[in-house]
Amino acid sequence: MRFKQESTHLTPEQLLPNQSTPLKKISTIQIPPPTPPNPSFQYSTELQHYLSGRSLLPDELSFSIEDLHEHYLNGYITYGKGLNNYHCHRCGNRKKHLFARFNCFRCQGECTYCRNCIMMGRVSECTPLISWTGPPPTSVNLTLFDWTGTLSKAQQEASNRVVDTVKTNDNLLVWAVCGAGKTEVLFQGIHEALSKNKRVCIAAPRTDVILELSPRLQKVFPNTSITTLYGGSDDRHEYGQLVLTTSHQLFRYKRAFDFIVIDEVDAFPYSYDPTLKYAVEKARKSKSAIVYLTATPDSQTQKNCSSKKQNHIRIPARYHRHRIPMPRLVWCGNWNKAFEKNRIPSILKKWTLQRLQQNKQAFIFFPSVKIMEKALPLFQKLNPAIEAVHAEEPHRKEKVQKMRSGETPILLTTTILERGVTIPNIDVAVLGAEESIFTESALVQIAGRAGRSAEYPKGDVVYFHYGKTKGMINAIMHIYSMNKEAGKRGLIDG
Ligand SMILES: [Zn+2]
Ligand SMILES: [Zn+2]
């Protein structure tokens, strides 16, 4: 799309009567200051709901260019640059090698585009990003808050801090052990924000988390419009007062949110993709609150917490007031060699047989798919119902479901199940705990699978290893210190 530049406004080429006027790519135009919204203009509430707080390509809007332009001339939308000078304004990419040039049909010449966010539609030098500059949609309804649960003492303290953070537009890290009940800790803060007509976003790295949260939150906030976004979702066309989204979908938002929650911030692919940090900053309003949730902050974050550089609150105990099962270290010899000889390391075999005899379900975590596939037939000799899952496994969901229903006695898995999956009464083993994939955080998360339910608060957690590592020791220290703090603060019984 090219524009004719006039002193007070731009005109898209499609709306020009003759093609002889000089046309420019939006990347080379000095964008005129926005006109204030004309109060007598009848704006489209549909467009308002769709576009408010977002920054979208013309192709993502199902409105005619005539319609859009009228809103532009009346001060309700702006045309912004998609990219210029090797800077993508949607995803923040500034790495030259992540741009490419192509022969552009729209501007009829060579045009640069961003490769980093290409999966969301092409942003090029001639692509405008369109944003809403009119008033945001208002909800006149009183926000209903339908939650009758109670919070534990530690949850309540954290919840109060979240509410304060929302009120003061501050930031807070909630460091809550696995199974602490962190979602409930957000409810009062979300209600505080929604009831002031603020817009709230919960971003999580995994689609599973978003899919699980969505119905839960809809129940708690029954008259709040909730938008649920993940790669492949079809919920994109509604205005959500509360937006649940996976990380990448945040790229479409701009100055939208008064309160953002980043769930599992340590698993957020920040470190692989710095543009996600940009996406979060772009999506929040300049005055807004942000809450990070994690069970396993990385070492830098842990340091920032202890030096008080990072506002934080810890929930060191589970809501059921039992301590977190302490992992045991068990030497299992050269497990690699054992599997090569088609044997399960004998101590692991013994542990597995004990679970089978006691009818106790278990997860066994493997350091790689290769070893796990080698091991599976050996385990199936012990019991043919034993199964294995990994990331590329097409029947992953069904297999996890069979584990939940109790049909599968023991599930072999890679670190793919280190988070999120909750089975009430389960023991957990890690094979080759010294392998680099089993970081402190992975080992803490894995241990966190055991003892989750109030009915079965205990569970055996074993790190089978062929040599101790810092990661293993740190994981044990991590859990130990959480239990200790929980004891001191009176958050566990016995
Ligand atoms: Zn981009
Ligand atoms: Zn172009």
Automatic annotation (TrEMBL):
Keyword DNA-binding: yes
CDD domains referenced in this protein's UniProt entry, alphabetically: DEXDc_ComFA
One biological process term in Gene Ontology: DNA replication initiation
Helicase C-terminal domain residues: 343-494
One Pfam family it belongs to: Helicase_C
Lineage top rank: taxon: Bacteria
Single annotated GO MF: ATP binding
Domain Helicase ATP-binding: 163-315
Keywords: ATP-binding, DNA-binding, Nucleotide-binding
UniProt xrefs under PANTHER family: COMF OPERON PROTEIN 1, PRIMOSOMAL PROTEIN N
Protein known as: Competence protein ComFA
